[in-house]
Design goal:
This is Acetyl esterase/lipase. It comes from Pedobacter alluvionis. GO terms for molecular function: hydrolase activity. Keywords: Hydrolase. This protein has one domain: Rossmann fold, CATH 3.40.50. The protein has 13 helices and nine strands. α9 links the parallel β6 and β7. The protein is globular. The N terminus is likely disordered.
């Protein structure tokens, strides 16, 4: 059981709370200052210096988070071993410290959590299951995959995103701790991701979930995993997710796209880090062209309706756009939104970054519509 997790991670939980709804659902939208209604927050979070050279359009709150992350003085991730890289501070650490320093109120969580270990080929993986408080179900079910380049991060780092989905959609969320590289090379994470989805489908009723209302959501590497789960479900002829939400997903192997060039030195994700992630996860660099990694090279026909969320200041921005285009040409219904002035990893920062609050609302609206 993981009920005690809520006490020790109350601050991270608060990041998931949504205070206002995003309006409308349209295709290929770029969201600008219309999302920024929290003037009190904007006044409290002011950058200490000028906008960074790699992100001249960065929003003030986003810049404050990046400045805090930089203040820890961690060595560049791409210069470290995977073991040492996992000891670096994360954007979540920066957000939690800023919440403390600015005395930002953290709402009481509206979910309970429990842990579950399941068998996978060659071992076990852990699931964290979020259940809305005060209801009886059956609830919709979301299987969520965290980011971290298949190498770093964990369920705690991405707790805010998983909790946001559970609270705002009114769904059970199964957050998947797939095994990480380099200890577990490609395609271990992909296989673990699908095994977790299979488990969720088979155990939906026991979780008080509706087995006809299951979606997948993932961020970054997790976005890649979520899309692969849909592909594998299609190919293995088991129940397809009713929807997938892919948040700045890894979708192709070319690191010379326009967004890679523009934001090669960005934080918290840069081009060198992406190369390092590939080296850690892949057995050989040739595998970067594998359809599981380079989703734009695979058959995407027959996949569920898809929502893709991108960040402007992100090497992976163009990955999301390219994947959306390929899905559309494959006959898949796709809605996309790009959020300006924010970086990779912004999605879980709803208590500090207005764009994150809006993006969570958008994702929740898309999922609720699909579950209907």
């Amino acid at each position: 059981m993981e009920i005690n997790f809520l006490k020790s991670f109350t601050l991270a939980c608060g990041l998931a709370v949504l205070l206002s709804a995003c309006t409308g659902v349209t295709k290929n939208e770029t969201v600008t200052d219309s999302t920024r209604s929290d003037s009190t927050l904007a006044a409290a979070l002011k950058p200490a210096g000028p906008a960074p050279e790699w992100g001249k359009t960065i929003k003030p709150e986003m810049q404050v988070v990046i400045e805090k992350l930089s203040s820890y003085g961690d060595k560049p991730l791409e210069t470290l071993s995977a073991t040492d890289a996992r000891k670096n501070n994360t954007p979540t650490d920066a957000v939690m410290d800023l919440i403390k320093q600015n005395n930002i109120a953290v709402p009481t969580p509206k979910i309970d959590t429990m842990g579950k270990d399941i068998d996978v080929t060659g071992g076990k993986i852990h699931l964290r299951i979020y259940t809305p408080k005060g209801g009886n179900g059956p609830y919709p079910l979301i299987v969520y995959y965290h980011g971290g380049g298949f190498v770093i991060a964990n369920l705690d780092v991405y707790n805010a995103s998983a909790q946001a989905l559970a609270e705002q959609v009114g769904a059970i969320v199964v957050s998947v701790a797939y095994r990480l590289a380099p200890e577990n090379k490609f395609p271990t994470a992909h296989n673990d991701a699908f095994t977790a989805y299979e488990w969720a489908v088979k155990n939906a009723v026991d979780l008080k979930a509706d087995p006809a209302k299951i979606a997948v959501v993932g961020e970054s590497a997790g976005g890649n995993l979520a899309a692969n789960v849909s592909i594998m479900a299609r190919d293995k002829h088991i129940m397809l997710p009713v929807h997938e939400v892919l948040i700045y997903p890894i979708a192709q192997a070319d690191m010379n796209t326009e967004s890679y060039k523009m934001y090669q030195n960005a934080k918290p994700l840069n081009k060198a880090m992406m190369g390092w992630f590939n080296e850690q996860y892949l057995n050989t660099m040739i595998e970067a062209q594998d359809p599981k990694i380079s989703l734009i090279n695979t058959n995407l026909k027959g996949l569920p309706s898809t929502t893709i969320i991108t960040a402007e200041i992100d090497p992976l921005h163009d990955d999301g756009i390219m994947l959306a285009d390929k899905l559309k040409t494959s006959g898949v219904k796709v809605n996309t939104r790009n959020y300006e002035g924010v970086t990779h990893e912004f999605f879980g920062m709803a208590l500090l970054v207005p764009e994150a609050k809006a993006a969570q609302a958008y994702a929740a609206d898309q999922l609720k519509a699909a579950f209907k």
